[in-house]
Design goal:
This protein is of the alpha/beta class and 309 residues long. It contains eleven helices and 14 strands. This is ABC-type multidrug transport system, ATPase component.
Length: 309
């Protein structure tokens, strides 16, 4: 195991941010870490990389106990933060050089590593330009270059594609796969469920600081195998319709967004009752679809929330 987390608790005053968490990250995998806002993902990541101390439990990385002073472990980790960690007063080359030096690179090894990182992210031809002139996608790619210049064994990527154009997003997703193929283990967080489904060999879902499910995507779908998912398109809709559907026996979750209602219910439940509840509360149904379970449906069923909530 690259990462072993056992019975970890982290408190901020009376609030428990990570609640008795135990999980592992296997060598060579791309692990998706999912949770709604406030679930504890950032605290967990900061604990893994040694920025945040824990109150109890144990975190091991590369078979060593992680601490704020374990520099061997830290220099083998690359972190791509959600908030850009680049300097606008430095050129692209100088940014990567700065982080390379922080990780102890120097001389020919440093120069070669900078070239490889900028080549990998498609920025070598722009190496002498300042990041403030870059598009949002190019800044994100420079962020990655700074995080991989030392060729880390473990890469943690926190929302690396947020707010960028489709071309840069595809470039980054391809880069994640290539980094994994080159030998790096990746922990990947995202609010785009389709990214997680495309990239990750295994997924961990957390909520309120607790691990609530983990496994491959197919294994996670088994959590709702006794349920059915219905997509209802409404011409007229309101909050009262949502509440009425939630009150129907057998309904597990009901989410209304921009005229589309997603309902997760027991297979023994009656679709007719749901339709009647909608009509009786003034709703006009234009279309009903029965859907196969997706990772988004699993997440909604387990947390009661959409990933982007």
């Amino acid at each position: 195991m690259i990462v072993e987390i056992k019975d970890v608790i982290k408190r901020y005053g009376d609030r428990i941010a990570v609640d008795n968490m135990s999980m592992n990250v296997r060598e060579g995998e791309i692990l998706g870490l999912l949770g709604p806002n406030g679930a504890g993902k950032t605290t967990l990541i900061n604990s893994i990389i040694g920025i945040t101390g824990i109150n109890s439990g144990e975190i091991k990385i590369f078979d060593q106990v992680m601490s704020q002073n374990n520099y061997y472990v830290k220099k083998n980790i690359g972190v791509v933060p959600q908030n850009l960690a680049i300097y606008n007063e430095f050129k692209a080359y100088e940014n990567v050089e700065y982080f390379g030096r922080l990780y102890g690179l120097k001389g020919r090894e440093l120069k070669d590593s900078i070239r490889q990182a900028l080549d990998f992210t498609g920025l070598w031809e722009r190496k002498n330009e300042y990041p403030k002139k870059f598009s949002g996608g190019m800044q994100r790619r420079l962020n990655i270059a700074c995080s991989i210049v030392h060729r880390p064994k473990l890469i943690i990527m926190d929302e690396p594609t947020v707010g960028i154009d489709p071309q840069s997003r595809n470039h980054i997703l391809d880069s994640v796969v290539k980094l994994n193929e080159m030998g790096s283990t990746v922990i990947y967080t995202s609010h785009y469920m389709e990214e997680v489904e495309a990239l990750c060999s295994r997924v961990v879902i957390i909520d309120n600081g607790r691990l609530i499910a983990q496994g491959t995507i197919e294994e996670l779908k088994e959590y709702i195998q006794d349920e059915q998912i219905i997509d209802i398109v409404l011409k007229n809709y309101s909050h009262s319709i949502t509440e009425a559907v939630k009150a129907v026996y057998g309904v597990k979750e009901c989410l209304l967004q921009e005229g589309r209602m997603k309902v997760i219910l027991d297979k023994s439940s009656s679709l007719a009752r749901i339709i009647n509840s909608i009509v009786e509360n003034g709703g006009i149904i234009t279309k009903i679809n029965m859907e196969d379970a997706s990772l988004e449906d699993v997440f909604l069923g387990l947390t009661g929330k959409k990933l982007r909530d």
